[in-house]
Specification:
Layout (H helix, E strand, L loop, with lengths): L6 H8 L4 H7 L4 H7 L2 H11 L16 H12 L10 E8 L7 E3 L14 E5 L5 E5 L4 E5 L7 E7 L4 E6 L3 E5 L8 E4 L4 E8 L4 E7 L3 E6 L5 E6 L7 E4 L5 E5 L8 E4 H5 L9 E3 L5 E6 L6 E7 L6 E13 L2 E14 L8 E4 L5 E4 L3 E5 L5 E6 L5 E6 L3 E6 L4 E6 L6 E7 L10 E7 L3 E7 L5 E8 L4
Length: 466
C-alpha cells in the first residue's frame, strides 16, 4: 500500500537535500516530482551555489524555472571539463609594445542559451593604452587614447564591462571600454599599491590601497570617495574580498604584520558606524589567502616560517557579534595543520567549496583536508609547476614549458580528476616565462614573455555550438 506524506513536511525534508539528491527523489512519483521541482527549493540551491543570485534580480529566460536554470548553468560551468584538446582553438596575439604584465577578463561568465557569449580580455601595454581583445574572433574591439603617464595597475569589473587603471602619478581612471574617454577620474594622495573592483550589496566599488597603509573606497561609476581608512602601519600587498563581498582581508608578507579582516558594510556605510569594524588574525608571515567558494564566511590562509620553511594552513570562520551596543568581528579558527619542509617549497594554493586544500610544489600537486589529511598527489617529473589557478570548478596547472593541465573538482567527493593537457603551441625559450594564467567558462588565457622581451597573449578558446 502506497503511503502519501503531507506536502509540507516533505518540502521541509527536501530543503535539506543537494541538487543530485533532489533530482533522484523527483523520480519516485508524480507528487514527489512536483514538490522536488519547486522554484522555492531550486532558487535556494542557486543562491547557495552562485551567490550573485542574492545580489541581482535574475531574469529567467521565457518560462524557464529555477530548476532549469540550475541544471543548465551547472552544465555551462562544466563545459571545459567535458571537453578535450581537440575542442579548443588556439589563438595568439603578439603585443608589440608589451603589456606590462596586465591582462584581465572583462567579459561575463560563460555561455548563454543562444551561444552568443564570448571571452573578452582587457590589456595594458607600454605605449600607455588599454585595449580589449575578443578571444574567439581574434580581433581588438576597443583601444583607449594614449595616456600621459605609464599605467601601473589594472583591474576589471566584468559584470559591468568596466576597467579601472592607476598610473604612476596616482591618477585613477574608470573606463567602460566602449568610449574613448574615461568615465571618471580621481587622484590619490600617495602612490597606489593594490587595486580591486567588486560589486557589493550597497554599490559597485573600487578598493585602492597606498604605500602608507591607507585603504580608499570609491563608488562606481563616478569615483566618488566613500571612505578612507588607515588599516595597516605599512603598505598592503593583497586585497582579498569574500565571495559575496561581506568581508575584505588585507595582508602584508611581513613577520610582525598580522592580516586584518574588515566587515565591508562598516567601510561603506560611514553614517551607521562610528569606526570600521575589523579583527586581526593571529597568523604571521601570511603568504596567500583564499576564501572558500560558495561559503561567505570561511577563509584559509597559508603562512611560512622563514627559518624552518614549515608551511602552516589555518582556516577561520568569520562572524559578527554584538557586544553591548557595539558590533565586533571575530575570526574563529576551525581547522589547521603544519606541513613539514619539502625539498621544493610550496608556492601556490587554493580551496574547493568542500574545504579541500590544493597546493603545489615544484614537482607535485598535493590535496589535503583542512585538518591536514593527505587525499591525493599528482607527480610531475619531466616538467615543473610554475603557476596554479583554482576556482570552484577547475584547477589549472601551468608547467614551465607553457603547457596546461586541466583538472576538475569531483561533484560528490573531495578529490580532483585530471581532464586533459593543452600543449603550448609557442616555443618557450629558457629565458622566457609565463606571467599569468586565467580562465573563464569558455577560454583559458596565458600572458607570456619570450627571451627577447616580446610579449604574447595566448588563448585556448572552447568551440561553442550555437
Amino acid at each position: 500500500m502506497e503511503t502519501h506524506l503531507p506536502s509540507l513536511p516533505l518540502m521541509k525534508i527536501f530543503s535539506y537535500l543537494d541538487a543530485y539528491s533532489l533530482l533522484q527523489v523527483a523520480q519516485v512519483n508524480k507528487n514527489w516530482n512536483a514538490l522536488a521541482s519547486s522554484d522555492v527549493l531550486w532558487r535556494k540551491l542557486c543562491q547557495k551555489r552562485w551567490l550573485f543570485c542574492d545580489m541581482v534580480t535574475l531574469q529567467l529566460q521565457d518560462k524557464e524555472t529555477w530548476k532549469q536554470f540550475f541544471v543548465y548553468r551547472t552544465w555551462q560551468e562544466h563545459s571545459k571539463t567535458r571537453a578535450n584538446p581537440r575542442d579548443f582553438t588556439y589563438k595568439e596575439i603578439p603585443l608589440q609594445y608589451g603589456p606590462c604584465g596586465y591582462a584581465c577578463y572583462i567579459s561575463g561568465c560563460g555561455i548563454t542559451r543562444k551561444g552568443q557569449d564570448k571571452s573578452v580580455v582587457c590589456m595594458v601595454n607600454s605605449k600607455n593604452t588599454i585595449s580589449t581583445w575578443d578571444v574567439h574572433k581574434s580581433v581588438i574591439t576597443w583601444v583607449s587614447p594614449e595616456q600621459p603617464a605609464s599605467i601601473k595597475l589594472l583591474t576589471t569589473l566584468p559584470e559591468m564591462h568596466i576597467a579601472v587603471t592607476v598610473d604612476i602619478q596616482s591618477t585613477i581612471k574608470l573606463w567602460d571600454c566602449h568610449n574613448r574617454e574615461a568615465l571618471a577620474t580621481n587622484i590619490l594622495e600617495s602612490p597606489c599599491k593594490s587595486l580591486k573592483a567588486v560589486i557589493t550589496k550597497d554599490d559597485p566599488i573600487v578598493l585602492v590601497s597606498d604605500i602608507l597603509g591607507n585603504l580608499y573606497i570609491f563608488r562606481i561609476p563616478d569615483l566618488h570617495l566613500i571612505s578612507t581608512v588607515n588599516v595597516l602601519p605599512c603598505d598592503i600587498d593583497e586585497i582579498y574580498c569574500s565571495p559575496q563581498k561581506k568581508w575584505v582581508l588585507l595582508s602584508k608578507k611581513q613577520p610582525y604584520i598580522l592580516p586584518k579582516v574588515f566587515y565591508m558594510s562598516s567601510l561603506l556605510r560611514t553614517s551607521e558606524f562610528s569606526a570600521p569594524v575589523s579583527t586581526l588574525l593571529e597568523i604571521s608571515l601570511c603568504q596567500e589567502a583564499f576564501w572558500t567558494p560558495r561559503r561567505e564566511d570561511r577563509l584559509t590562509l597559508m603562512s611560512r616560517s622563514g627559518c624552518s620553511k614549515i608551511t602552516k594552513f589555518e582556516t577561520y570562520d568569520m562572524k559578527l557579534e554584538e557586544f553591548g551596543n557595539k558590533i565586533i568581528v571575530k575570526g574563529n579558527s576551525i581547522a589547521g595543520f603544519l606541513l613539514p619542509y619539502y625539498t621544493e617549497s610550496l608556492n601556490w594554493f587554493g580551496v574547493s567549496d568542500k574545504d579541500t586544500i590544493v597546493c603545489s610544489t615544484e614537482f607535485s600537486l598535493l590535496l589535503f583536508t583542512n585538518n591536514g589529511h593527505r587525499l591525493q598527489t599528482f607527480q610531475y617529473f619531466s616538467e615543473t609547476i610554475v603557476r596554479l589557478s583554482v576556482d570552484p570548478v577547475h584547477v589549472i596547472v601551468t608547467c614551465n614549458d607553457g603547457s596546461l593541465d586541466v583538472y576538475a573538482w569531483e561533484e560528490r567527493s573531495l578529490l580532483l580528476r585530471k581532464c586533459y593537457r593543452l600543449k603550448n603551441r609557442r616555443h618557450l625559450s629558457p629565458r622566457g616565462f609565463i606571467n599569468k594564467t586565467l580562465c573563464d567558462d569558455v577560454s583559458i588565457i596565458q600572458l607570456m614573455i619570450d627571451g627577447h622581451d616580446t610579449w604574447f597573449l595566448m588563448a585556448y578558446a572552447l568551440n561553442i555550438c550555437s
